[in-house]
From TrEMBL:
<dbReference type="Pfam" id="PF18029">
    <property type="entry name" value="Glyoxalase_6"/>
</dbReference>
<dbReference type="GO" id="GO:0051213">
    <property type="term" value="F:dioxygenase activity"/>
</dbReference>
<dbReference type="InterPro" id="IPR037523">
    <property type="entry name" value="VOC_core"/>
</dbReference>
<feature type="domain" description="VOC">
    <location>
        <begin position="17"/>
        <end position="144"/>
    </location>
</feature>
<keyword id="KW-0560">Oxidoreductase</keyword>
<dbReference type="InterPro" id="IPR041581">
    <property type="entry name" value="Glyoxalase_6"/>
</dbReference>
<dbReference type="GO" id="GO:0016829">
    <property type="term" value="F:lyase activity"/>
</dbReference>
<keyword id="KW-0456">Lyase</keyword>
<dbReference type="InterPro" id="IPR029068">
    <property type="entry name" value="Glyas_Bleomycin-R_OHBP_Dase"/>
</dbReference>
<protein>
    <submittedName>
        <fullName>Catechol 2,3-dioxygenase-like lactoylglutathione lyase family enzyme</fullName>
    </submittedName>
</protein>
<keyword id="KW-0223">Dioxygenase</keyword>
Length: 144
């Protein structure tokens, strides 16, 4: 059962909406292009090597999306260090799960062609998900 904070609160205070999930990387435009290809989304006009944003189907949060369709953005970090997972000196800190609609096998060729690589560590015992690395080394999963 999922219980939302709003359901537990009597407050009528407006709640913020998730707008961006921002990934640090060595080249924001390159990583933006990777996720644009994988997800079938567009790069926002003006995206460059320092900052890139994807436009999800239906638009982003500001100002055209008051209902909050969160999107991904990427920012270049000069001293980028690729995450390590599992464990290590630079842990992943978070990862993205991308729903496949049921077939990881059908989705895999597209993510590999875009530049992903299969991670050596595959902890799923039942095949419900598979772990990959994006071109900057962030772990992400394709899930059934």
């Amino acid at each position: 059962m999922v219980v939302t904070v709003a359901a537990m609160s009597e407050s009528t205070t407006p709640k913020p909406k998730l707008d961006l999930v921002i990934l640090d990387c060595p080249d924001a435009l390159a990583l933006g292009r990777f996720y644009a290809e994988v997800l079938g989304w567009e790069l926002e006009e003006g995206s460059d090597r320092d900052w890139s944003t994807l436009v999800p189907p239906g638009g982003g949060l500001s100002p055209d999306n008051p209902d909050g369709r969160a999107t991904l953005a990427f920012q270049r970090i000069d001293d980028w260090v690729e995450p390590t997972w599992p464990g290590g000196a630079h842990p992943q800190q978070f990862h993205l799960d991308l729903a496949t609609g049921g077939s990881i096998e059908a989705a895999e060729p597209g993510v590999l062609a875009a530049g992903a690589r299969v991670h050596e560590h595959q902890p799923s015992d039942d095949g419900h998900f598979k772990v990959y690395l994006d071109p900057a080394g962030h772990p992400f999963c394709l899930i059934k």
